[in-house]
Specification:
CATH topology of chain B: Amidase signature (AS) enzymes
Order of helices and strands of chain A: HHHH
Shape of chain A: elongated
Strand content of chain B: 5-15%
Number of domains of chain B: 1
CATH class of chain B: Alpha Beta
Radius of gyration of chain A: 20 Å
Number of helices of chain A: 4
Oligomer: heterodimer
Number of helices of chain B: 15
Order of helices and strands of chain B: HHEHEHEHEHEEHEHEHHHEHHEEHH
Structural class of chain A: mainly alpha
Chain lengths: 72, 483
């Protein structure tokens, strides 16, 4: 394994990868802003994941809508 | 001469006793609004001809004994992400310029209801672009300014409704609230604004921001006026499958002034001890609670855990849902969006499907926690915003990410939450308190707000409109903000 392969990606590289996946092209200034934002955004999501499986499932699927209220 | 602090309730009485006509109010407001728009940036579209035609009809109907109710002949404004016949829905965005379908719209269900009740629509008013972010002065839209101090923000996203009602350019209007967008502008402009229970008012014909958090709510000078508006706005409609079938109450009938025995919970931590909370804002909240206690209510502080996580979850869900809506246009038209809105919504690219699901699982957990609090309390009270109106030139999208929020928690849980004035800061800016109720308990929230307004007159205070009029011609509204 080379050094390049073992080195974790930088925040800037991760930001670039997310935006490339989304198909969005931004300015260098905006990229700089997102590089600063990224750790804050990920920290906020990570805090919610800390609850793990203690949380019950959420009802993103709505049987009443899909089957009708009588069958759901 | 139309008073700058005229209420819907008072105007209705004057329309019926013959001391005022709908045409007179409508014309006066339009004249004032058209003159002040260069300073305040409140309107995106004026619908003068249609408004005067409707006002004339209202006067004739009332004279003939045909009375459509308390909103008959009342001039209102509509936030420009809500469809209204006779005007485009710009969403304050050049993106909508590209698609002819946004140029001619039919009434959103909520607008249709107000129109059927005889309301007069003066025009469409400014929103933050797509209801999010800070204004971008480089785009073609006017930047809204706070009428109490035009160097300061009118907040967002229902900025134009807040500015126009505060400055006496309309008697009331529609806002939308996904994370605080009715309550924030109501707070900083010195108004009363109600974020309704999720589903209380149909959202069909409204450009979405976060579809599982969005709501349409009334903004006006008083809680009583908000009750009048909500009585017409509320109720299920098949065009919005998320609208609720819960019965609509006679909200004005609940405004008895009686809060004897009302149980007020003041949640801690976060809401009263956050380091970003301004002392005068905190004092305003505690003063309002004390006033209600003096009227027979009882209050206590209680621990409501996870409020900051709830803010995070609300924001994550909003950004993910907004990003899903805008993704395709971001790929094609990124730079045609304003810097503030694209910067904010673009953050949705950094969340995963797992993040969104976990935020919704947390949402249920937090809703249960809050529901348990409502076993002990009838309403919860806290600040609406941590500080009075911000200086426009100091606002930025990045700064907003780290800011405390006391409003998104109630979008996350879907609960009704109202902002009303609680005084003024030492430099003359409006302060506000937030009142949160159980699901569909708008009547209780309005009753508490109205009880406070029977003992105070902050909601009737008016910004320096005459000074603003003197500024017209010297100033352009597009000036201050940075992305």
């Amino acid at each position: 394994m080379t050094d390049a392969e073992s080195k974790p990606p930088s925040v800037a590289e991760i930001v670039d990868a997310h935006l490339a996946a989304a198909g969005i092209t931004i300015s260098p200034e905006e990229r700089e802003m997102y590089v600063a934002d990224y750790p804050i955004l990920r920290a906020s999501a990570a805090r919610l994941h800390e609850y793990g499986d203690e949380l019950e499932s959420s009802l993103l699927f709505d049987p009443a809508f899909c089957y009708g209220e009588e069958l759901a | 001469m139309i008073a700058n602090n005229l209420t819907i309730r008072d105007a209705g009485q004057q329309l019926r006793d013959g001391s005022l006509t709908s045409v007179a109010i409508t014309e006066a407001f339009l004249n004032r609004a058209e003159k002040l728009n260069s300073v305040l940036g409140a309107f995106t579209t004026f619908t003068r001809d249609a408004a005067l035609e409707r006002a004339e009809k209202a006067d004739a109907e009332l004279a003939a004994g045909t009375d459509l109710g308390p909103l008959h002949g009342i001039p209102l404004v509509v936030k420009d992400i809500i469809d209204m016949e006779g005007a485009p829905t710009t969403a304050n965005s050049e993106i909508h310029d590209k698609d002819p379908k946004w140029q001619q719209r039919t009434d959103a269900e909520v607008v249709s209801r107000l129109r059927s009740a005889g309301s007069v629509f003066l025009g469409k008013v400014t929103t933050s672009e797509f209801a999010i972010g800070v204004p971008d002065a480089e785009k073609r839209f006017l930047v809204p300014h706070n009428p109490w101090d035009i160097t300061r923000s009118a907040a967002g996203s229902s900025s134009g409704t807040g500015v126009s009602v505060a400055a006496g350019l309309a008697l009331g209007g529609l806002g939308t609230d996904t994370g605080g967008s009715v309550r924030g502008p109501s707070c900083v402009n010195g108004l009363s604004g109600l974020k309704v229970t999720y589903g209380r008012v149909p959202k069909s014909g409204v450009v979405p921001l976060g579809h599982s958090l969005d709501s349409v709510g009334p903004m006006a000078r008083s809680a009583y006026d908000c009750a009048l508006l909500l009585e017409v706005m509320a109720g299920y409609h098949a065009s919005d499958p998320t609208s609720a079938k819960a019965p609509v109450e006679k909200y004005t009938g609940a405004l008895t002034g009686n809060v004897e025995g009302l149980r007020i919970g003041v949640p801690e931590p976060y809401f009263l001890d956050h380091e970003q909370l301004d002392n005068e804002v905190r004092d305003g909240v505690l003063g309002a609670v004390d006033r209600l206690v003096g009227m027979g209510a009882v209050s206590s502080r209680f621990e409501l855990p996870d409020a900051e996580f709830a803010k995070d979850a609300s924001q994550l869900i909003m950004l993910a849902e907004a990003f899903a809506y805008h993704r395709d246009n971001f790929q094609k038209y990124w730079t045609d969006y304003g810097r503030g809105s694209r910067g904010a919504i673009g953050r949705g690219a950094f969340f995963s499907g797992a993040d969104y699901v976990q935020a919704n699982r947390f949402r249920r957990h937090f809703a249960r926690t809050v529901a348990a609090a409502f076993d002990e309390y009838d309403v919860l009270m806290m600040p609406t915003m941590a500080i009075p109106a911000e200086v426009l030139a100091q606002m930025s999208t990045s700064k907003r990410l780290g800011q405390v929020s006391f409003t998104g928690q109630w979008n996350l849980t879907g609960l009704p939450a109202m902002s009303i004035p609680s005084g003024f800061s030492s430099n003359g800016l409006p302060l506000a308190v937030q009142i949160v109720g159980r699901p569909f308990a708008e009547a209780t929230v309005l009753r508490v707000a109205d009880a406070l307004q029977r003992q105070t007159d902050w909601h009737l205070a008016v910004p320096p409109v005459d000074e603003l009029m003197a500024m017209t011609g010297r100033s352009r509204a597009r000036s201050a903000a940075t992305g």
